[in-house]
Amino acid sequence: MQTSLFSLSIWPPVMQALALAVPTCFALGAGLAGRARPFRGAAYACAGAVLAALVFAAALVVAPAGALPGADPAPWALARVDGVTATMLVLVSGLGWVVVRYSRTYLGGDPGQARFARWLLATLSTVATLVIADHLLVMAAAWTLTSLALHQLLTYYRERPAALVAAHKKFLVSRLADLCLWAALVLIFRSTGTLRLGALASWVSAHGELPMSLHVAAVLCAIAAALKSAQLPFHGWLIQVMEAPTPVSALLHAGIVNLGGFLMIRLASVMAHAPAAQLLLVVIGMVTAVLAALIAATRVSVKVALAWSTCAQMGFMLVECGLGAWHLALLHLVAHSLYKAHAFLSAGSAVEAWQLQALAPRASSPSPLRMGGVTLAALAAMAAAVIAGVVLRGAPAVAPSTAVLALVVALSLAPMLASSGGGRVSLALRALFVAALYAAWHVSAAWLWPALASADGHAAGWAVVAVGFVALFVAQAIVAVRPRGDVARAVHTWLFAGLYLDERFTRLTFRVWPPRLPPPRPPRSRGAVRVRVADAAEVAS
């Protein structure tokens, strides 16, 4: 009996140590990064973080019943031990290791490697601290420190005015998000007397109806998440940070920009009882997802198109949170992080593939009849997949959020299938395959994170999402069927300019707090250029 009790009592501190080992490895790597081979020590630090994260995830799976604290850990616990923490630790440490390995080659010979490696590892350490935190105060502090560390990476090329302007705008938006989050924390503590996630969930479960102060706090948290997720019209910095090194773009788009959605997932117990905050998430995310998706279709730069895609994806993630599909929002976060990391780190290959595709003969535009038939096939396939999932799980009915998200997937699938080749049988099979895959991921996410799959959204949110994505589908269908028509030409100019939203926001930020830019370089005279060319030729000879 004593051995059994000892074995059970040893699990919580071991799990805490494993979780804390991940940010500690990154922090030690940042502190020990020297000028000679800085990325070598960084690689060792990332390897240690990956090992600790994998062991933490494995221990969470094999831990005996009753050994883990569950939703209410001990007062001394610093890390939250659950499946969400394990998932995020593996994701952050794995992506960090890949970005560090890529940076070693990307910045080979650069004199600022040591500074870059230190701030890169410091950013990863603060992100890992945020994802394991069981206390909102620690989360908010890590949230702010992540932004400050990332600012040093965004301004790595301090002689580039465009990079400084983008980082300056991002700095202002992040400070506004910090202000909203810290104000929300004050309201939460005054209403509940706690900032621990487990205790907060227990308080909400016991009281049911939220006081007005918590509704206001939930709205402030939703605004903070939207600001951090680069939602319109505060999106310009995300599009313009391409002036930073490519590893920074990969880290930002694959991880840090997702932290707004992660905050909503951690606060699901409060947000699920705050309909105003959930509706706000749906409206902001829906508007951003629709407009950013349309704007991304007009981009000619691969990286800029990826940036607009990130903006749209973050909007859809907030929509999932607003609908109460927390498990799907977390699945979306993981999938988007992996996809965007690969897309940015292989941007050179993407450019080559785009060039080959541009040289290939263009496929003819689909006819309205084909578009309509493919749309009906996609809707039927998604309906069959949803019904099959309900039957297999033994659920009494289809959840409204599931039906709306299935409609979204079907409408998103139809234009792609209509533009591709193949006959009716081929299109039907592809639609069924994608629908079955979506249903499988839906069930898998609910099984991996069961605590996140219990809530649901509200009717107003479902209506906004349905209307928004139907409008997006109609716009995409019109452009796909008549790419050179009057409607496409009329909206192309506005969409290509990003609806001029960022220009207005940039003017406002310059009035409130203008950035410090490097002095312009004096123009060279032709004589100086001739002297330098002559000197170079003499040295070469």
**Strand content bin:** under 5%
Secondary structure category:
mainly alpha
Tally the beta strands.
0
What form results from the Cα inertia axes? globular
Q: Which spans of ≥5 residues are poorly predicted at pLDDT below 50?
A: 1-6, 526-541
Q: What is the end-to-end distance?
A: 85 Å
Biggest β-sheet strands, sense, barrel? none
Number of helices: 23
Describe, in plain words, how this protein is organized in 3D.
There is one protein chain. The chain is mostly helical and 541 residues long. The chain has helices spanning 2-32, 38-62, 83-106, 113-132, 136-154, 161-192, 197-207, 212-228, 236-240, 246-254, 259-266, 268-271, 275-296, 302-322, 326-345, 347-359, 368-393, 400-419, 424-448, 459-481, 486-496, 501-512, 526-540. The protein is globular and about 65 Å long. It starts with a helix and ends with a helix.
What are the SSEs and their pairings?
Layout (H helix, E strand, L loop, with lengths): L1 H31 L5 H25 L20 H24 L6 H20 L3 H19 L6 H32 L4 H11 L4 H17 L7 H5 L5 H9 L4 H8 L1 H4 L3 H22 L5 H21 L3 H20 L1 H13 L8 H26 L6 H20 L4 H25 L10 H23 L4 H11 L4 H12 L13 H15 L1
